Recover the amino acids of this structure.
């Protein structure tokens, strides 16, 4: 159906408004990070790099950032390996028990974070895992696993298992088949699972608040602590850095995917 | 010559194919028997077709040979060696699937190179053999394309190249042309025949299309309900069907039923009051079925001619012009249908004409009735 010019203009305006509404809070952060005064008031006054400098030089900030990076990286790999194995197992099981098990493994997504946090905290107190790297990794992996499971399962659903039969007829054993046929074809699911797992861990706050201690803080914990203590624009600087990092990451990922798809068509 | 490899009828050319022996292979799914004692010897270098309606066990048989499915019982030898318990990836058998099964993330060349890479063939030798295989299926110019950039027929030719590039002594094909249109199918049938001739390996081909089976095969095994009804050349199956099922599945046929009376060494059959004389004796009594091929029947105006041949009265129900002649469906007095093929020179008839169907007693095949054969054929 042809659209009338007026309809087109109105529709365009509405879309623009919605877009602004969605990104405005994010974009407010950027000017705030250059504030000259130690205040989170908007609009900010003057211009300075001091909050970026603070982020790099103040060990409270830089250490928590490195901690988050470390935890999220380990969690991403661990959750991807475990989640992929789980997705495979479920894909190749009988439907009924598989559905039951799948629901069980997805519960961390639906159970309220606080409930999980209290449970984990109680266990960690006994096992002395509070404030340890292992503690953070284990807790975050529980939370990240469902994302990997969902992403990889979605890919396996459309994966043609008959290709594995074909590979066998050509002489490939199970491991070679997985490496050369199955894995490359489910790679997009794996990759998005990996990213989701990383992101889940990197900005996890609820459970982290429970299992943190002064010796091991992650970035969200540090942000939360900072913002409850005083109005420090370093928070805005961190937010801006993360905004650009994720934009570049997601953007290049989409570019790569697009190029690959084009190559195949 | 290796044990189990026999020379083909082709003089001067030593066969590179493997003989295959299936001995009472059965496959049960729960209480359902998908295969029920299938025995089949395939000669080295032979083109054997497994023909039968959908669900008759052809794919299951192929899967057992390929190693994708384990038989419940029975023995299986390829090239004189038992392969029972040998996993598919160690059998060195080429397989072509109806759904092509090309790896979508690899180019045509990499698809074809895949089995070579697994066998440690590398570098220039690998390239040469990939080129040779693609040449054989006339896809040499498409090496850098991805499967999604090819038509169905092209994809299947690449799949064929991939299945023969590692020189397997046996090639299995499961309805490889099933998803293609008729023109393409007929052309690829001839291509497959040529490739079989050039390679000299054993081909086992599955189809439910009897015409395709007749075009391609040295011999055909007719499957029905998990059993083999008959094994023979196309000619043998057409001229001498062992069962009513085979007679009806291969070619057109007229099937008549009536009470038999044997006297003086010959059996006569009563078809709605009209006696049909045959030259055979009915061995086992029972209710026989008569099977007649369309070109053995002739049409005449009611009561005209006949010179001592059997005569059944009927009326033309359908007349189809075929170019090289005509095909008629005649509604007979007993309610059955006769299918008659006539040449261009013969008299032509119109729908509704009262006619007599004429045929010699020697052309009547007497077969045991089995209601199983009445299942709708696909
Ligand atoms: N995995 C399976 N589980 C249960 N029944 C099966 C299975 N595979 C095949 N069958 C049954 O075995 C019979 C033969 O199947 P198949 O060999 O595929 O027939 P065809 O290839 O001749 O069409 C069919 O009735 C089919 O439903
Ligand atoms: Mg089949």
């Amino acid at each position: 159906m042809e659209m009338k010019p007026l309809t087109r203009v109105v529709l365009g305006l509405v879309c623009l408004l919605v877009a602004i509404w969605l990104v405005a809070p994010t974009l407010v952060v950027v000017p705030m990070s250059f504030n000259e005064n130690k205040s989170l008031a908007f609009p900010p006054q003057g211009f300075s790099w001091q909050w970026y400098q603070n982020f790099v030089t103040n060990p409270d900030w830089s250490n928590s950032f490195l901690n988050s990076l470390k935890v999220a990286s380990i969690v991403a790999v661990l959750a991807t390996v475990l989640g992929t194995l789980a997705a495979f197992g479920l894909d190749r099981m009988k439907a009924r028990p598989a559905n039951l098990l799948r629901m069980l493994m997805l519960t961390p997504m639906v159970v309220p974070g606080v409930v999980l946090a209290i449970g984990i905290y109680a266990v960690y107190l006994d096992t002395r895992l509070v404030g340890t790297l292992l503690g953070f990794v284990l807790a975050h992996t529980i939370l990240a696993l469902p994302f990997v499971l969902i992403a990889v399962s979605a890919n396996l659903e459309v994966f043609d298992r008959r290709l594995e039969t074909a590979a066998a007829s050509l002489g490939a054993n199970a491991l070679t088949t997985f490496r050369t046929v199955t894995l490359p074809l489910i790679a997009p699911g794996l990759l998005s699972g990996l990213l989701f797992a990383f992101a889940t861990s990197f900005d996890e706050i609820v459970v982290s608040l429970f299992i943190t201690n002064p010796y091991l803080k992650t970035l969200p914990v540090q942000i939360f602590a900072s913002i409850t203590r005083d109005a420090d624009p370093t928070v805005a600087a961190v937010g801006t850095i993360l905004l650009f990092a994720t934009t570049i990451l997601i953007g290049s990922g989409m570019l790569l995917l697009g190029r690959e798809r084009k190559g195949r068509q | 010559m290796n044990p189990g490899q026999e020379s083909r009828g082709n003089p001067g050319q030593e066969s590179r194919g493997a003989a295959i022996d299936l001995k009472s292979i059965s496959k049960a799914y729960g209480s359902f028997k998908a295969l029920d004692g299938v025995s089949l010897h395939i000669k080295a270098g032979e083109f054997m077709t497994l023909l039968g309606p959908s669900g008759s066990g052809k794919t299951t048989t192929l899967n057992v040979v390929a190693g994708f499915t384990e038989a419940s019982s029975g023995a299986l030898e390829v090239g004189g060696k038992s392969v029972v318990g040998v996993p598919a990836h160690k059998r060195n058998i080429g397989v072509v699937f109806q759904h092509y099964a090309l790896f979508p993330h690899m180019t045509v060349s990499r698809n074809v190179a895949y089995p070579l890479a697994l066998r440690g063939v590398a570098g220039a030798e690998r390239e040469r053999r990939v080129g040779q295989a693609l040449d054989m299926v006339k896809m040499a110019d498409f090496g850098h394309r991805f499967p999604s950039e090819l038509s169905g027929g092209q994809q299947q030719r690449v799949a064929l190249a991939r299945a023969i590039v590692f020189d397997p002594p046996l090639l299995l094909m499961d309805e490889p042309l099933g998803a293609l249109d008729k023109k393409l199918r007929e052309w690829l049938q001839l291509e497959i025949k040529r490739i079989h001739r050039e390679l000299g390996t054993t081909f086992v081909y599955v189809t439910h299309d009897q015409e395709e089976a007749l075009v391609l095969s040295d011999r055909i095994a007719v499957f029905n309900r998990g059993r083999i009804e008959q094994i023979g050349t196309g000619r043998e199956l057409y001229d001498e069907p062992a069962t009513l099922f085979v007679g009806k599945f291969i070619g057109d046929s007229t099937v008549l039923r009536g009470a038999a009376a044997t006297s003086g060494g010959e059996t006569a059959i009563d078809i709605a009051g009209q006696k049909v004389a045959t030259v055979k004796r009915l061995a086992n009594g029972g209710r026989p079925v008569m099977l007649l091929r369309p070109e053995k029947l002739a049409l005449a105006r009611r009561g005209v001619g006949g010179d001592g041949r059997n005569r059944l009265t009927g009326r033309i129900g359908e007349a189809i012009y075929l170019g090289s002649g005509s095909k008629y469906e005649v509604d007979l007095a007993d309610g059955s249908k006769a299918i008659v093929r006539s040449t261009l020179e013969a008299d032509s008839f119109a729908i509704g004409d009262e006619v007599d169907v004429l045929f010699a007693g020697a052309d009547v095949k007497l077969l045991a009735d089995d209601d199983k054969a009445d299942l709708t054929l696909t």
Remarks:
- Residues 8 and 15 of chain B are 6 Å apart (CA to CA).
- The domain at 20-247 of chain B is CATH 3.40.50.300 (Rossmann fold).
- Chain B touches chain A at residues 66-68, 87-90, 92-95, 97, 99, 101, 103-105, 114-115, 118-119, 146, 148-149, 162-163, 166 (CB under 8 Å).
